[in-house]
Amino acid sequence: MFSSFMLNAWEVGSVVALVAGLVGYFVVLRRAAFAAHAIPNGAFAGAAGASLIGQSTLLGLGVFSVLGGVAITLMGRRGRNDVATALVLVAMLGLGSAFLSQGTGYEGQLYGLLFGEILGVSSSSVVPVFILGACTCAIILALFRPLLLASTAPDLARAQGIRVQWLDMAFGVMLALTTTLTVPVVGALLMFPLMIGPPAAARICTKRPGAALALSAAFALVVLWVSLALAYQLNWPVGFFVGCGSALLYATVRVGTRLRAMSH
Amino acid sequence: MRYLFEPGLFSSSPALHALFLSAVVAAVSAVVGVYVILRSNSFSGHALTDVATTGGAGAAFVGFAPLVGFIGGALAGAGAIEVVGRDNAQHRDTATGLVLGAATGLSALFLYLTATNSTTTGVTQQVLFGSIFSVSTATIPVAALLAILIVGVMGLIARPLTLASLSPDIARAHGVPSRRLGVIFLVCTSVSVGLSAITLGSVLSTALIIGPAATALRLSKNIWRATLASVAIGIGACWAGIVIAYDSYYWHRSSQELPVSCCVVAVIVAFYGASSALRRLRSRHV
Predict the structure, then answer these.
(1) Which of A83, A91, A250 comes nearest B269 by C-beta?
(2) How many domains does chain B have?
(3) B56 touches chain A (CB under 8 A)
(4) Residue of A nearest to B261 (CA)
(5) Domain A4-188 falls in which CATH fold?
(6) What was the pLDDT predicted at A140?
(7) CB contact under 8 A, B265 and A90
(8) What residues make up the domain containing B268?
(9) B residues 260-279 closer than 8 Å to A (CB)
(10) CB neighbours (10 Å) of residue B164?
(11) Can you tell me the mean pLDDT for A219-227?
(12) Which tens digits make up the pLDDT trace of B74-93?
């Protein structure tokens, strides 16, 4: 299970889970699940486009996810946030289907982009993933306090002179970076559960922000490690274990806390 | 006319079926979509299309009829969202996310198993992006029947649902059963989403629910007029998209036609952009 080709998967997967857990905490806090779903989903169009013109998929993912994050933040400022997100998402997916139709022989690659191919992580993608991961972690830790305040009490943050609009934009870009990082590994559809399940479970366990943030990252790591091990053993897609594992984790924690509350 | 509609569009029966079916589905989605937007349910509206896709993938794996899979998937997803998000309406967003995550995980498994167990190729693309030109003719009457049913139910609950969506407190004071209405509406949404996901693919299905309704609600604040406008925009966008996709076969030297979903989405986004511009012009004149 720890042979050389799996080593990349363990390394990259751990970075991905750590970042997803940290960013996910703010996703759940800000009720931005839709954006967190839409950006990676739409960014997959970028990967399809990049492979069509012969560029690296990481570049395509990066460009599309940053564009998507900025568009969602800007359009959400005026008008309704969820409608803006939905429209940006369908526009990007529409483009993606056009790119797909123009390329040929894309079935396997399509499946990989959507559902991830962690067992096929190449050594060349380890370094970029580590750099991107470190950047995202640094942004989160640097912005932790103002972002926390802006996410929970925007008016209060504004009164304290925090530029909430800039923070919103920073959050959008952070989501985009996370997307670029995770899509090639766990897939466009499946990095999303990792950003929702563990943080939501962590927030049930503790109300203190710092502890919840740490717990969320720990949960995400556990989910990913277990998923990787199971995927290796059973030879089923890793995305299945990530998706259902995240939901299962949340359900267990929620039922557990309720049982404990009842026995008291 | 000859330059607008390439030869053979109106004599090809798959194209005619596509025009009819897309109009039916677009109309239903447009009606449901107005209330999806009024209730700020865009995320669950979109999530249901993906959950429906999981059902479709499951049906493809087990060998059930796709329509059963799509609609069953959407209904199960709606039930799960309702159960997880019941205790705290505030966290509906997270509840939707959790269900969506689990569902995508399942579809990964189904698609993987289908792809490894059978010789059929293109399952992933088919399920996700759909192709209206390849819908089986047997689905059409069923789809039309379900569509009539949904529009009928929506017509019955429209008035109280509007009140319950816009001002829940007043609705409660009037004794409107908001919860029950919400559940009925969710069932309607699920069936309509299942229907559109099977005919148009899950990408287009979100576009048809959100796009026309969002455009219409920008043009008119009157709910009836907005619903009518939404239906008109939905059908118009679908037909325009199909014609463009059909024509695009002749544009390019490679003779690689553009997918219908891409063309329809482009028309819908253009409509929405035009409505934004129109609204800005109007507000300047006042």
Answers:
(1) A91
(2) 1
(3) no
(4) A94
(5) ABC transporter involved in vitamin B12 uptake, BtuC (1.10.3470)
(6) 87
(7) yes
(8) 13-276
(9) 261-262, 264-266, 268-269, 272
(10) 25
(11) 92
(12) 999 998 888 887 766 567 88
